[in-house]
Amino acid sequence: MNLLDYFIQSQVILLVLYFIYTGFLHKKISYGLSRGYLLMLLPVALLLPLLRITIVADSYQYITSYLPTILVKSQSAVSILESGESWQMMRLYSIGYKLITIAYGTGCFCCFLLFFYRILKAFRLFKNTRNSILDGKKILITPDNHGAFSVFGKIVVGERTMLAAGISQIVRHEELHCSLYHFADIMIICIQRILLWFNPLMLHIERLLREVHEYQVDERIIRSGANPKEYVGLLIDFEMTGGGPVLANRFSYLSLKNRMIMISSVGKMKSNKRILIALPILLLFVYLFCITPMSCVNNDSAPADSVAPIGTALPINTKAAATVEELPFAACQIKPKFKGGDQNEFTRWVFAQIHYPDKAKSTGTQGRVTLQFTVDEKGKVVNPKVLRGVSKELDEEALRVVSASPNWEPGWDEGKPIKVRFIFPVIFQLK
To answer: Per-residue pLDDT tens for 230-283?
Structure first.
């Protein structure tokens, strides 16, 4: 799988799972389950496209890899891509890829520096606090008017907030944040945002996670016997209280309206079975992105006229009884490399080696020679053959160049080197 395919697949998975949550699960399943779902969104989106499940079947179709086509002219050899891209376009693509990589790395580095700065800022805040004990709980009192919040498992309360009538309930609220390790969730989601700094969806996921934190704590406080009206009154008193580090859980983080709606719904049953809605979607992604077809028979005996147009599947010869000796290109996890590059590097090498035979020129012979060869476990090019030829001279010239190929870096699958088969079209064209 190339990087672009992986990026597209992971972002599609992330987007779909996000919409499943907001559309079907938000506030309809328990807050603990919501918390786990939101934390697992990105890991699932990043890891699922890397999963490979190989299906073995006697009569399965597989996709054969087609190398870029070489166009050999009688006056000069010109290499073209089957997609119509020129070498100049390939060079621009390579430069663009490098620029995107540099931009992504720069963005990650800048976001990491910001994250590190926020951690230092939180610890610097601790230096300006003094220790205190309230109802047997250790708290830090800050002279700044930060209200109340918890960060890195520590409860911090502003001096003015300490004078509030409901200070015990406020401290209890922040203690629950610490005991539920909500600060660890925030660290995890911040690291995820560093990796996907360019995706605004991660900001929405963080907001949803912080919302779940507050709902989870509010629910536990109400279930522990706190008076809902008094608790709502406390929220009203501290609605405008802000401040505190960005990485903190704050008592007044959510809007009052949302929290009042949540408090009024405490006691109502939530159906955790709704999360099963995501299961068929995950299975669909596994089918689309993870399943790799592989034949359990060898296709070497397929006739030349079975060669399909580029991009179509070749049928397996089900009468041949043999064990798997070669993998289709799409099935191997690590693709073969030629001189450290991709398939186009091999095409460039052939471009420099091939010549238009003089006899074919004199007889006016031209056409498309389709070759097949295999890169074995040692990286050697073996079993080169003509699947569809034009003439003896053109066929032999194409075979000569391919047979003289230097060794490749072999493909790998399931931790071991494997054979990988290629189809290589060469077009000989007179001026």
So the answer is: 888 887 777 655 556 677 776 656 666 777 777 777 767 678 889 999 999 999
Of 257, 213, 238, give the one whose Cα is nearest residue 38: 213
Q: How many CA atoms are closer than 13 Å to the CA of 86, on its beta-carbon side? A: 4
The mean pLDDT value for 282-290 works out to 88
Global pTM exceeds 0.70: no
Q: What is the DSSP string of 288-309?
A: IIIEEEEESS--TT--GGGPPP
The 10s digit of each residue's pLDDT in 46-85 is 999 988 776 654 433 333 455 666 667 665 544 444 444 4
Residue 359: half-sphere exposure toward Cβ, Cα within 13 Å: 7
146: helix, strand or coil: coil
Can you tell me the distance from the alpha carbon of 141 to that of 163, in angstroms, rounded to the nearest whole number? 12
Q: How many Å apart are CA 54 and CA 56, to the nearest integer?
A: 6
- Residue 205: CB atoms within 10 Å: 24
From CA 102, how far away is CA 111, in angstroms rounded? 14
At 32, the amino acid letter reads: G
Look at residues 401, 375, 398 and name the one whose alpha carbon lies nearest to residue 387. 398
The CA distance from 423 to 2, in Å, is: 19
How far is 286 from 53, CA to CA, in rounded Å?
A: 8
Q: How far is CA 108 from CA 5, 100, 163, in A?
A: 21, 12, 43
Closest CA to 113 of 194, 54, 211: 194
Q: Which two tokens stand for residue 102?
A: 């540099």
Q: Hey, what amino acid is at 76?
A: S
Decide: residue 206, CB within 10 A, 0-12 exposed, 13-18 middle, 19+ buried: middle
- Taking the C-alpha atoms of residue 185 and residue 148, their distance in angstroms, rounded to an integer, is 19
